[in-house]
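Reviewer 2 asked us to include a model.

Predict the structure of this chain.
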Amino acid sequence: MSELLTIENIDVCYGNIKALSGVSMHVDQGDIVCLIGANGAGKSTLLKSIVGLEGLTNGQICFDGEVICQAKKVKHTTDQIAKMGISLVPEGRRVFADMTVEENLDMGAFMVRDQNVIAKKKEEMFDFFPILGARRKQKTRSLSGGEQQMMAIARALMSSPRMILLDEPGLGLAPLIIQDIFNKIALINKQDKVTIFLVEQNARMALKASNKGYVMENGKIVLADKASNLLTNEKVKAAYLGE
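Predicted model (structure tokens):
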């Protein structure tokens, strides 16, 4: 498979604090790749750097062979990166609480000019997430956490991305709801051919869902392997799987 996302030796600093140090990794087209690590390891910072929300102090990031982020240079703005086919589902969902479900989906299609395309895509989302169809006119604040997470994913899909970055999609949700979310992620990958880069604290769930996994500690990648191998890795089991 061809590399869709390539991260080459990047550093990200907050003042004198180095949040990411020498991070190199890649995501192949069509794969589900996960990044696991403890709180504060730098996982969310990495996702933000991919979409241009955090500047690089070293290295570069390429998408489909084109440099999109480079140290000390603004190669592409966040909206330009989104237009290239990358959508971010941020940690904590970041929904527009006083808007309806339907209005939130419209926000996800802000780059799409054809109203017929938007209407068709919304109906696809309501078919894929039936609970959202049933609640389309409700204010988002009235939804459960799981419903809000589904809506955040649906909003990201409204622009028909080639890759989705998912930041802690299972955060704060009950185990059965998390399983439902991960089932939907697998379908998005398989049916819609969307490449998935997943950051998740539930290491076991993330690794079981993925083709490949990376482990981050203190802003550095310390392990990279097939996800199935990481599930049986003694260090991973001890540190992240509770074994």
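The chain has a mean pLDDT of 90. The radius of gyration is 18 Å. We have added this to the supplementary material.
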